[in-house]
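User: Fold this; tokens only.

Assistant: Input:
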Amino acid sequence: MRRYHRKRIGRYLTVYFVPLFQIEKLAEWLQCEVCQNIFPIEVLQRKPPPNPQHILEEVRKDLTAGLSVQQVMIKLRNSGLRVDLMQKVIDVVIEDHRLTCPKCKYEFFDTATFCGNCGTKLA
């Protein structure tokens, strides 16, 4: 882990050439002490990649709670998971326990009794 300096440029309210407080932020960045490279401040908010086991547990929990496969895929897409990985996760969790709504064609885990999209009773 390298040390860095957080640098800022801004406009300040001054009285007799003494800056009192910042009134506008113009720029902010990080600079590495070792290589002197400049990075955007957003690198501090970077989230670590999710744990694969945690993803499987969340998908299993959502599917057994009655969410459709399509709704779970939207949730996974919003979390940043790639499309090919989303389909693999769904296939691992749902295996041969897939029910399809005859009316709207949404897919559910076999524990669902009604379609969450149109309300049709599932076989």
